[in-house]
TrEMBL record:
Residues 45-138 form the Methyltransferase domain. PANTHER family: METHYLTRANSFERASE, UBIQUINONE BIOSYNTHESIS O-METHYLTRANSFERASE, MITOCHONDRIAL. It comes from Rhodococcus daqingensis. Transmembrane segments: none annotated. Its EC number is 2.1.1.222, 2.1.1.64. One of its GO terms (molecular function) is 2-polyprenyl-6-hydroxyphenol methylase activity. GO terms for biological process: methylation. It is an enzyme of class 2 (transferase). CDD domains: AdoMet_MTases (cd02440). This is Class I SAM-dependent methyltransferase. The keyword Plastid does not apply. InterPro entries: Methyltransf_25, SAM-dependent_MTases_sf.
Length: 199
């Protein structure tokens, strides 16, 4: 999948960036709730950050944000975007299945907009282990994922059962299927928002 993403960024075919922008209202509502319940913002991680749009929103809210992505062009664009906006955010080129060596520890919130659902079964296990390793007890994880299914080159999605099984050290606080304002191709993938908290 990594090679596919690199090629897509190079060709300028990045529908996930466009779809991610359409999640804005839903993400804003959740982040408002998160800000109200989590106390002062701390360290936040944007896993599979792409060109950094969601990272910048977190940084504007006072979070100390690190975004990580495996595509060099996406990371360069995220850094340029932050600089142009005058927003303080760090963007790292790295592998989400080996987070600790790239981003350190101490995160209180993790945002995953379409990262987990594109990983292989083995990568998902490694990813969950690393997310647990780099976060603090009580940390929150907000994940947007397609429902499971075969979609050719598109992500295979993830079920609630797989999310709960893979993140065994986390509690699934909510599972919401809200497709309002999403474009038809995204609605057809049966997407869900999973909100988990680390034990």
């Amino acid at each position: 999948m990594n090679v596919g993403y690199r090629l897509a960024y190079r060709l300028g075919v990045t529908p996930w960036e466009w779809a991610g922008r359409s999640l804005g209202a839903q993400l804003t509502t959740f982040l408002d709730d998160q800000d109200a319940s989590a106390g002062p913002p701390g360290k936040a991680l944007d896993a599979g950050c792409g060109t950094g749009g969601h990272s910048l929103e977190l940084a504007r809210r006072g979070w100390q944000v690190t975004g990580i992505d495996a595509v060099p062009l996406a990371v360069r664009r995220a850094r340029a975007r932050a600089a142009a906006a005058g927003v303080d955010a760090t963007f790292v080129l790295g592998d989400v299945t080996e987070l600790e060596k790239s981003v350190g520890r101490g995160y209180r919130f993790v945002l995953d907009i379409g990262c987990f659902h594109g990983l292989t079964a083995g990568e998902r296990i490694d990813y969950a282990r690393e997310i647990t390793r780099v976060t603090e007890p009580g940390a929150g994880l907000l994940m947007f994922a397609f429902g499971p299914g075969r979609r050719g080159p598109l992500p295979r999605g993830a079920s609630r059962a797989e999310v709960e099984r893979t993140f065994a050290e986390w509690h699934l606080a909510s599972d919401v299927a809200d497709t309002t304002a999403l474009p038809p191709p995204v609605r057809g993938s049966k997407p869900r928002w999973f909100h988990l908290t680390r034990a």
